[in-house]
TrEMBL record, chain A:
PANTHER family: DIPEPTIDE TRANSPORT ATP-BINDING PROTEIN DPPD, OLIGOPEPTIDE TRANSPORT ATP-BINDING PROTEIN APPD. The keyword ATP-binding applies. It is found in: Cell membrane. GO terms for molecular function: ATP binding. It comes from the Bacteria. The keyword Membrane applies. CDD domains: ABC_NikE_OppD_transporters. InterPro entries: AAA+_ATPase (IPR003593), ABC_Ni/Peptide_Import (IPR050388), ABC_transporter-like_ATP-bd (IPR003439), ABC_transporter-like_CS (IPR017871), Oligopep_ABC_C (IPR013563), P-loop_NTPase (IPR027417). This is Peptide ABC transporter ATP-binding protein. SUPFAM superfamilies: P-loop containing nucleoside triphosphate hydrolases. Residues 5-256 form the ABC transporter domain. It comes from Pontibacillus salipaludis. Keywords: ATP-binding, Cell membrane, Membrane, Nucleotide-binding, Transport.
UniProtKB/TrEMBL annotation, chain B:
Residues 94-295 form the ABC transmembrane type-1 domain. The keyword Membrane applies. It comes from Pontibacillus chungwhensis BH030062. The chain crosses the membrane at residues 9-27, 98-121, 133-156, 168-188, 230-252, 272-298. This is Peptide ABC transporter permease. Keywords: Cell membrane, Membrane, Transmembrane, Transmembrane helix, Transport. One of its GO terms (cellular component) is plasma membrane. SUPFAM superfamilies: MetI-like. It is a multi-pass membrane protein. GO terms for biological process: transmembrane transport.
């Protein structure tokens, strides 16, 4: 399958009074047509900055794309002017934001907010745009769309607003949809509905999706492939099965262990000790070394390259070097993996 | 909506009553009388005058008389301007002050929003600093200095506009500018700060992610959401400006209503004081009601209906 998006060695920094914050430090990934890539990581790992750079939504200054390229269907978005980017935003790439309570304009009717990008990019008449807006509201599962289209955001509930936001994003049939933690601000039952909806829409429209989250439970549900980000870098990438059943990076182990689970027998919630690295002054070796109980001397001195695990599975940890001692994932993680496999088997 | 307005009108009557009562007794508590001058009047004449204007009755009876005249909207004769009723004074002065005031409000709003929007969109750039210097000047330079400055430069040095008097449209430009400068500066600052707040909102990012350009984002998404503080400032501003400014009208020799606010008090011209106070209050109350209605038109989240259903 053809790559719709290819990000090569992307570096993004913010120039602050405290110095240059290197939020994204050389990220590589790609998204194929019709697939869902999940980018996972804790707060401050650079996942939102990465995706907002793709749409060039980072305020510049203080933000700055220091290097690398973002190839969308072969053309480099980094080199485009602001005027040219306006033709990409909303038309080819659309975005769904985290908080549906604040990401819709409170003084504009939902219908108009959906129609805006259609009228702008597709140059269609207002009446046709409205018809399409009603269809979209219907598609995202909003009952009585003919009435809802003339309502304001405050007349919608949180879950409904996120559905409306998805309709806004889908308005011009984007080829790539970026969902920046679209379920984080919603409660669990609504989360499941929104995830189902996104999967459903992808089936119907064959859109590629980049799904940002810090919730591995969500990833297992929606993604084809996963990229785990830490300290402004991707530390492990692979298919969902590979990352869930055969995780290699100690940070991925930590994430898996810290997943809250209803049917796990251990009562205590596992946490990764320590706090994320200071990106004004990034550590010399592996950024995760300071919090890593498996860290070796080399981890503090040299950055690990991406070691190949399989054709699609890579991880940046010295543990995969041939000279490194064989280390098994901790017991909690092994138990979790067994558990995933069991559940997968049941299905 | 109609029910809401009806209820508001009822409250307005109540508010007006409080204002009338407080003004009446405060005015009477002040020493002096309309007939006390340099030379003392013979007691007989004084008594006759007081009887003529009803000032010999008990204070309470005078108060009742006054309430009745307010209801009839007839404020009686002026105690100082012989042969003129307060209603005459208002109907002569108000149209002039109204025309001047409307022009000033239009200028203040148009220039203020423009300056504020430019400052917000070019935040921390030279356009922002320039707009804010103009705003600070507008707020801190008193209107009489602004007025004389404008007269000196535009009328005397360059002779492009008439210096004073109230005759043609050209005569209105300088006083309107002088009157507008402070509210214009205030509106500019309000617009700037509230636009900066709105620009930081998520829905502006959403608008940008749809591929809208910055003009479309500002016009469709930012301005409307940023207008609330400006609208609430408009209520008191409209009533204050429409009833005229003592200083500006004095400087430009404009026969407006503004002078009566000041001279009636030094004259102890009881009926004029009460008349202009009631008139101003009614105007203020109406413009506040209009502002509240404007709120609900701008922001659909604000509902004017009664909360009966709860």
């Amino acid at each position: 399958m053809e790559n719709i998006l290819e990000v090569n060695d992307l570096k993004v920094s913010f120039n602050t009074f405290a110095g240059e914050v290197q939020a994204v430090r050389g990220v590589n990934f790609h998204v194929k047509k019709g697939e869902t890539l999940a980018i996972v990581g804790e707060s401050g790992s650079g996942k939102s900055v990465t995706t907002q750079s793709i749409m060039r939504l980072i305020p510049m200054p203080p933000g700055e794309i220091k290097g690398g390229e973002i190839l969308f269907e072969g053309t480099d978005l980094v080199k485009k002017s602001d005027k040219q980017m306006e033709k990409v935003r909303g038309k080819d790439i659309a975005m769904i934001f985290q908080d549906p309570m604040t990401s819709l304009n409170p003084t504009m009717k939902i219908g108009r907010q959906i129609m805006e990008s259609m009228i702008k990019h597709r140059k269609i008449a207002k009446t046709d745009a409205k018809k399409r807006a009603i269809e979209l509201l219907d598609l995202v599962g909003i009952p009585k769309p003919e009435q809802r289209v003339d309502q304001y955001p405050h007349e919608f509930s949180g879950g409904m607003r996120q559905r409306a936001m998805i309709a806004v994003a889908l308005a011009s049939d984007p080829k790539l949809l970026i969902a920046d933690e679209p379920t984080t601000a919603l409660d669990v039952t609504i989360q499941a509905q929104i995830l189902e909806l996104l999967k459903d829409i992808q089936k119907k429209t064959n859109t590629s999706i980049i799904f940002i989250t810090h919730d591995l439970g969500v990833v297992a549900n929606v993604a084809d492939r996963v990229a785990v980000m830490y300290g402004g870098k991707i530390v492990e990438t692979g298919s969902v099965d590979e990352v869930f059943y055969n995780p290699q990076h100690p940070y991925t182990w930590g994430l898996l262990a810290s997943m809250p689970s209803l049917d796990a027998e251990e009562g205590e919630l596992q946490a990764i000790p320590g706090s994320p690295p200071d990106l004004t002054n990034p550590p010399k070796g592996d950024a995760f070394a300071a919090r890593n109980s498996y860290a070796m001397k080399v981890d503090f001195e040299m950055e690990p390259p991406m070691f190949k695990v399989s054709d699609t599975h890579y991880a940046a940890t010295w543990l995969l070097h041939e000279d490194a001692p064989k280390v098994e994932p901790p017991a909690v993680v092994r138990k979790r993996i067994e558990h995933f496999k069991e559940k997968a088997g049941e299905r | 909506m109609l029910k809401y307005i009806g209820k508001r009108l009822l409250y307005m009557v109540l508010t007006l009553w409080v204002i009338v009562t407080v003004t009446f007794f405060l005015m009477r508590a002040a020493p002096g009388s309309p007939f006390s001058g340099e030379k003392e009047l013979p007691p007989a004449i004084q008594a006759n005058l007081e009887a003529y204007y009803g000032l010999d009755k008990s204070l309470f009876m005078q108060y009742v008389d006054y309430l009745i005249s307010v209801v009839k909207w007839d404020f009686g004769p002026s105690l100082k301007y012989k042969g003129q009723s307060v209603n005459d004074l208002i109907s002569e002065g108000f149209p002039v002050s109204f025309a001047l005031g409307m022009e000033a409000i239009f200028l203040a709003l148009a220039l203020g929003v423009l300056l504020g929007a430019v400052a917000a969109l070019r935040h921390n750039k030279w356009q922002d600093y320039t707009a804010m210097i103009i705003a600070v000047l507008g707020i801190s330079v008193p209107s009489f200095i602004m007025a004389s400055g404008l007269q000196y430069v535009l009328a005397i040095k360059w002779s492009v506009l008439p210096v004073a008097r109230w005759e043609s449209f050209a005569h209105t430009i300088l006083p309107a500018l002088a009157l507008a400068s402070t509210p214009m500066a205030f509106i500019a600052r309000l617009t700037r700060s509230s636009m900066l707040e709105v620009i930081g909102n998520d829905y502006i990012k959403t608008a940008k992610s749809k591929g809208l350009n910055s003009t479309e984002i500002t016009v469709r998404h930012t301005i409307r959401n940023a207008m609330m503080p400006v609208v609430s400032y408009m209520g008191p501003l409209i009533s204050a400006i429409l009833t005229g400014s003592f200083v500006i009208e004095k400087i430009f020799g404009i026969p407006g209503l503004g002078m009566h606010f000041v001279t009636s008090i030094t004259n102890r011209d009881y009926s004029v004081i009460m008349g202009v106070t009631v008139f101003f209050s009614v105007l203020l109350l109406v413009s506040i009601l209009l502002v509240d209605i404007a709120y609900s038109l701008i922001d659909p989240r604000i509902k004017l209906a009664d909360k009966k259903g709860e």
